[in-house]
Amino acid sequence: MSEGSLEAPIRHPIAWQEPDFYDEAKLDEELRRVFDICHGCRRCFNLCDSFPRLFDLIDDAETGELDSVDSKDFKPIADACTLCDMCFMVKCPYVPPHEFNLDFPHLMLRYRAIEHKKGSVPFTAKQLTKTDRNGEIASKVAGLANWAGKCGNLVTRPIMESTLGIHKKAVLPPFAALPFSERTNQPEINEAAPAFGRKAVLYATCFANYNNPQIGEAAQAVLAKNGVETEVVYPRCCGMPQLEQGDIEAVAESAKTTAADLAPWIEKGYDIIALVPSCALMLKFEWPLIVTDDENVKKLSAATFDVTEYIVSIAKNNGMVDGLGALEGGVTVHISCHSRAQNMGQKAAEMLRLIPDLDLTVIERCSGHGGSWGIMKENFDVGIKVGKPVARKAGDAESKYILSECPLARDHIVQGIDMLEKPTGGIESVQHPIELIARAYDL
User: How many CB atoms within 10 Å of residue 198?
Assistant: First the structure.
C-alpha cells in the first residue's frame, strides 16, 4: 500500500439512488473509516473548520482515539463542510485511485442527504435555496428588498436573523430590478475579430441573473468585441443551493431538465458559458456524477466553460482584439475554491494579465464564505475566521480593485478587510474579473 497517490484524482458516481446510501449504520461505518484516516494524517488541518472540529473531538475523547467518540458528535463536522472540494482536489493524498478511496466532501454530502431524507432540514432553510422564486419576487420589489437586506438595518436584519437564521452582520447581495435574462441590449458583433464565428450561450446563473447582471453584460460585451455571438439562456438554477442541503433528487431533476433545454443549442454548435464558478462546477462535474445515464448531461458537461476559461481560450487559440487599456490602482484577484475544483488553473489571473502593465496580486485560498453557508447565523463567525488570512492579504495589498470569480466570496473578503479595521473606502464596487476586462476595453 502506498503512502499517497501521485495519480490524478478521480471521482466515483454518487450512489444516491441505492438503498445503502441512506443506511445510517453503513454511513457511520464509513464515517469512522474516513475519520480515522484523517486523524492519522491531519494534512487538512487548516483548510476549513470541519477538520479542526474532527481533530479536537478525537483529542478530547477518553482514549484520544476515534473508538471513544460518540457518533452523535459527528454532526458539527458535517455542518462545517462548505463542499468547497479543496480537501479532495489539493490536499488529500488518499483520494481515488488510491486504495483508501477517500472523498470527504461527498461523504459529507451523503450525511446531509440522510438528514434531508429524515426531514431534519428546517423549512426556512429550504426556502432560502429557492433562488429563482426568491429572485423573481425580489426583483419586482428591488428597492424594498435591498433596503430590508442592507447591513445595519435595525428593523429588518434582527428579524431575518431570528426567523430565517441569516446572521444580521452578513453582507447580502442586492437584487436588480431587471434580471439579466430580460435585458435586450445586444452588443454588435465585431466581424473583424479573430474569434469571429464562435457562438456561445451565456448560462446566466441565478446570481448574475437576479443580483448582478453587470457580470453578464460585461461578458456579453467583451465576447461581442472579440467576435463571439452570444445568446442569454437561463432555464433555472443549477441546484448548488439544494446540493448544500443534501437534496440530491432536486439537483438530479434540475440537471436533466436544464441539460435537455440546452441540448438544442449545443447541437447548433454553441458553447455553454457559466458566469459563476459554482454553476460551472455543477454543469461540468457534479451533474454527471449524479445523473450518470443522461446523454444530454454528458454533452453539456463537455460543452461547458467557465467565463474566465473561455476568454483565455480565445486569447490562446484565436487572439484577443486590440484595445485593452491600462488600469490604475492595482488589482487583487481571489481564485475561488469552485474555480480551483474545476482543475483548470488560475484562469482569472491569466485573463487579467491580458491587461497591460497590470499590478496584480493573486490569492489562492478559501475566503470562508461557502455560498449560502457563510451567511447563516451559526456559520458567519466561522466563515470570517477561516477567511481572515485572505482578508488580511487583500487588505495589505491596498488595491483599487478586489475581485473574485465568486462574487459572494469577493464581498465576504471586503467585509473581512473592514472587520480587520483596514480601509475599504477606496475599493471599487467591481466584483468579477470579466467586469474589469470590459472596463479595460472601455465598454
Answer: 21
Query: Residue 203: what are its φ and ψ, rounded to 5°?
Result: -80, 110
Give the count of alpha carbons within 13 A of 70, CB side only: 3
The answer to whether the beta carbons of residues 249 and 243 sit under 8 Å apart is no
Q: Are 409 and 363 in contact (CB under 8 A)?
A: no
Output b/e per residue, 280-301; b: 16+ Cβ within 10 A: bbbbbbbbbbbbeebebbebbb
Which H or E element spans position 279?
Answer: helix 277-281
Cell numbers describing residue 408? 459572494
CA-based end-to-end distance of the chain = 57
pLDDT 10s per residue in the chain (443 long)? 455 556 778 899 999 999 999 999 999 999 999 999 999 999 998 888 999 999 999 999 999 999 999 999 999 999 999 999 999 988 899 999 999 999 999 999 999 999 999 999 999 989 999 999 999 999 999 999 999 999 999 999 999 999 999 999 999 999 999 999 999 888 999 999 999 999 999 999 999 999 999 999 999 999 999 999 999 999 999 999 999 999 999 999 999 999 999 999 999 999 999 999 999 999 999 999 999 999 999 999 999 999 999 999 999 999 999 999 999 999 999 999 999 999 999 999 999 999 999 999 999 999 998 878 889 999 999 999 999 999 999 999 999 999 999 999 999 999 999 999 888 888 999 999 999 999 999 99
By the 8 A CB rule, do 407 and 334 touch? no
Q: Which helix (H) or strand (E) holds 402?
A: strand 401-404
Residue 152, Ramachandran bin (φ over 0: left; ψ between -120 and 50: alpha; else beta): left
One-letter amino acid for residue 412 of the chain: H
Q: What is the DSSP code string of 178-234? A: S-GGG---PPPP-TTSTTBTBEEEEE-HHIIIII-HHHHHHHHHHHHHTT-EEEEE-
Q: Are 108 and 370 in contact (CB under 8 A)?
A: no
Contact 52, 45 (CB under 8 A): yes
Peptide bond into 97 cis (omega under 30): yes
Strands (E), 124-260: 199-203, 229-233
Q: Which residues of 179-188 are buried (b: 16+ CB within 10 A; e: fewer)?
A: bbbebeeeee
pTM of the model: 0.94
Q: Supply 94's cell numbers.
A: 488518499
**Cell numbers for 427:** 475599493
